[in-house]
């Protein structure tokens, strides 16, 4: 199964609000092979809930 990826750069302002800075097509971003995709998704999900 082919799963396309996108990248997104975020920054948190001094007042705590998150801003989307840039969205890309995923060609310049990757995760280390030693980290399963599920772990990355779990960490991202947790960071936006906290």
Number of helices: 1
Q: Spell out the helices and strands N to C.
A: EEH
Q: Radius of gyration in whole Å, from Cα? A: 13 Å
- Largest sheet entry: 2 strands, antiparallel
Whole-number mean pLDDT: 79
Task: Please indicate the percent range of residues in DSSP E strands (runs of 2 or more).
Answer: 25-35%
Structural class: alpha+beta
Mind explaining what this structure looks like?
This protein is of the alpha+beta class. Helices cover 26% and strands 26% of the residues. Strands 1-2 form a two-stranded antiparallel ribbon. Strand 1 (7-12) and strand 2 form a beta hairpin.
Topology:
Layout: E1 7-12, E2 18-24, H1 37-49
Antiparallel strand pairs: 1-2
Which labels suit this protein?
50 residues, two-stranded antiparallel ribbon, 2 strands, alpha+beta, flat
Brief overview:
With 50 residues, the protein is α+β, with helices and mostly antiparallel strands. The chain has one helix spanning 37-49, and strands spanning 7-12, 18-24.
